[in-house]
Amino acid sequence: MIQLANILHHKGFNITIIHTKYSCPNLSNYPHFTLHLIPDGISESEVSTTEVVSMLKLLKDRCIGPFRDILTQLSSDDSIACLISDAIWYFTQEMADNLKIHRIVLHTSSVGSFLAYAAMPLLQDKGYLSCSP
Q1: Is the pLDDT of residue 133 over 60?
Q2: Which residue has better confidence, 50 or 90?
Q3: Which are the contacts of 54, defined by CB distance < 8 A and separation ≥ 6?
Q4: Domains of the chain
Q5: Which superkingdom (predicted)?
Q6: pLDDT value, residue 50
Q7: Is 106 left (phi over 0), alpha (psi -120 to 50) or beta?
Q8: Which one is predicted more confidently, 129 or 66?
Q9: SS3 29
């Protein structure tokens, strides 16, 4: 997504990145981007002990409010051309709809991850997953 942001910036777009504090890219390499960090409160122990589906739910629960607040603030001046978000952040669709912002979804994971996500409903139906994504 950083590569896409660079391409769009070189085409004349201003880029604002909203990212969790956890695993944030080193944006000192990209001084031409504006960065807003979301306080996610995720600890190293949670990352290492939490299974994937629960981790995604934890991210959503902790990030939805701060993300909505930042996006609402940024959209107040009508300068957002588009919201580009990772497919994992599925909750951004409702926010984009509410703020009347176009949204593009990128799936930044591997093909293997995509196939695993596609299989989740079947795995859940069979009782292999204890919580919903």
Answers
A1: no
A2: 90
A3: 131
A4: 2-108 (3.40.50.2000)
A5: Eukaryota
A6: 63
A7: beta
A8: 66
A9: helix
